[in-house]
Known about the structure:
Elements: H1 2-9, H2 14-34, H3 48-65, H4 69-80, H5 85-111, E1 121-122, E2 125-126, H6 127-150, H7 153-171, H8 174-178
Antiparallel strand pairs: 1-2
Helix pairs in contact: 1-3, 1-5, 2-4, 2-7, 3-4, 3-5, 4-5
Amino acid sequence: AGFGGATLATHLPGAALKIAFGGVVLLAGIRMLTARPPRIELEPKDNPRLLVAWAIPIGIATGILGIGGGVLAVPIMVLALKFKMHNAIATSLAVIIFTSIGGVTGYIINGLGVSGLPAYSIGYVNLQAWALLAVTSVGMAQVGAITAHKLPAKQLRYIFIALMLFIGLRMLGVFDWLGWPI
């Protein structure tokens, strides 16, 4: 699904992808904000077919927009599948490894031979940016995991929602439109 989404995305205008990304993130944040969190005593839904049914659109969105783990999978796991917030985040991180492989492969294959890409690129993947982001992110993910484990689920949920709302509004250009230098 990630490969197919990436292939589709390479044929769409960048501006459309930016709007779609911002819209999906904003809507996911609003949905998490307005939905009642599941009761803690509820057990997660252990239905393989239901998990696969949700995995397909998550994989496609991951490939098209480069999102899926945190932005789509966490709200779906918390709201639809009744995961606890900490479990949803941890599971999402594990899933990202595999959804990313399909998406990255799609962007590499579909970007081969495309002119005007930055130096040090293989297809659409900029290796210099990837290396710098990957090295820094690995260490900071450890800090984030330790911090998340120490926070109450409700506080973690609201931090997650605030971040999604901010990113969604930023990608949609709302802050620029308002003249806010954010």
